[in-house]
Amino acid sequence: MIAERLVEDMTDAERERAARVESVLPVLRAMAEESDMRATFPASHVGLLRDAGLLGLVVPERFGGLGGTLRDLAAATYAMGTACPSTALAFFFHNTSASRGLLPLEAIEAGLFTEEEAPNVRAFAEKVLTRMAGGTWLANFASESVKSSTANITIATTARPVDGGWVLDGEKSFGCATGVADYYLTTAKLEGHETAEGLATFFVPRDAEGVSARDTWDGLGMRASANNGIRLNGVFIPAEEALTIPGAFTRMLTMSRGSFVGNQLAISAVYTGAAQSAYDHIIETLTRKTFADTGRPIASSPLHQQLIGEMTQQLETAYLWLRYQLLLETSEPPLKPKHEVFTQWRLGKGSVTEACFQVALIAFKAGGTSGAMMNGVVGRALRDLAMGLVMTFPAERGRLETAQIITEAKANELFTTAARSGE
């Protein structure tokens, strides 16, 4: 199976779940080019993935899901990325919603919530998981166009209390499945709070009064991911559809194994799948086409041999970084403490996405002028993979933060205490 190119040591259960993903790939692949040209997420894909049981891929079986883990999610987004990166990206963001259920439950078990808080936290967490397992598509809306110099994601959307619930106002600039998902799982800050302690999570129905889509997103990235974003203008959300305990968001994040809410590497798997598709396509093209004068494959020329070698190196670089991060975030017992896993991810995300983009860029060069088309596998890959260079944070920021972590730790080693003279 395609997924085994990334996760090479699948268990029987993982292989069975991967087979479900494999079954939908022909449809995703067949519709990828038209979807990209129209810049529209095919609504039929929701039913396709729901019928395959994949909307509950990473939901534990006790809540009705398939019981998959991060390994399953990475394998799935990778395989989908080889067929339709836009669908893979939207599917990834749906599955990130599961963290809003899984991590709070782990935090309860770890004793991070009081006896008074725990029932409300548990009820919300289980609602997230049972809805996903039941076939509800959740669009995870956190990112905003507002930026700060100290954080990768800044939340300006506000939630103020009213009788029976909350009223949300704000704008989410990034989030797949706009107009497609059943609910927008939305992060907002509680009125009166200016720190992360005030972050809360809300189920926002797609058709709720006051919810509208932003202008059509015409970007370089995955154009068929319905990535428009939303506006919230006085949207009322009932209290039972929200998790608004101050500090709940930050407490649950402490339970993740590594990157943010513990599943971010699966987005890099999307890019790696897209890069593999571009690689396979250009290799097949160059070996099939021949020179008119010699009859030899174009792939045999010194120029193309050099390009193929470089492209292969870049692709293998992406795999090495991604597989190692996956190992760090799923191994039992953990191989490294969380702060080291997090540091590795800061390097790994940029390393994977830059390598994947280079694969598409080299494939573009190898295809020559006849292959320089906006449509087609390589043309789409070049645009799709450009998004990885900036999404969440660019490689430069990851390297900077890693350097700061290393040098600050080393600087602390330079200071010690000494006994007073004569003692």
TrEMBL record:
One of its GO terms (molecular function) is oxidoreductase activity. Its EC number is 1.14.14.21. InterPro entries: Acyl-CoA_DH_C (IPR013107), Acyl-CoA_Oxase/DH_mid-dom (IPR006091), Acyl-CoA_Oxase/DH_mid-dom_sf (IPR046373), AcylCo_DH-like_C (IPR036250), AcylCoA_DH/ox_N (IPR013786), AcylCoA_DH/ox_N_sf (IPR037069), AcylCoA_DH/oxidase_NM_dom_sf (IPR009100). Pfam families: Acyl-CoA_dh_2, Acyl-CoA_dh_M, Acyl-CoA_dh_N. It comes from the Bacteria. Keywords: Flavoprotein, FMN, Monooxygenase, Nucleotide-binding, Oxidoreductase. Pathway: Sulfur metabolism; dibenzothiophene degradation. Coiled coil: none annotated. Residues 265-386 form the Acyl-CoA dehydrogenase C-terminal domain. It is found in: Cytoplasm. It is an enzyme of class 1 (oxidoreductase). Its main location: cytoplasm. Residues 144-234 form the Acyl-CoA oxidase/dehydrogenase middle domain. It catalyses: dibenzothiophene + FMNH2 + O2 = dibenzothiophene 5-oxide + FMN + H2O + H(+); dibenzothiophene + 2 FMNH2 + 2 O2 = dibenzothiophene 5,5-dioxide + 2 FMN + 2 H2O + 2 H(+); dibenzothiophene 5-oxide + FMNH2 + O2 = dibenzothiophene 5,5-dioxide + FMN + H2O + H(+). Belongs to the DszC flavin monooxygenase family. This is Dibenzothiophene monooxygenase. It comes from Microtetraspora glauca. The lineage of its organism: Bacteria, Bacillati, Actinomycetota, Actinomycetes, Streptosporangiales.
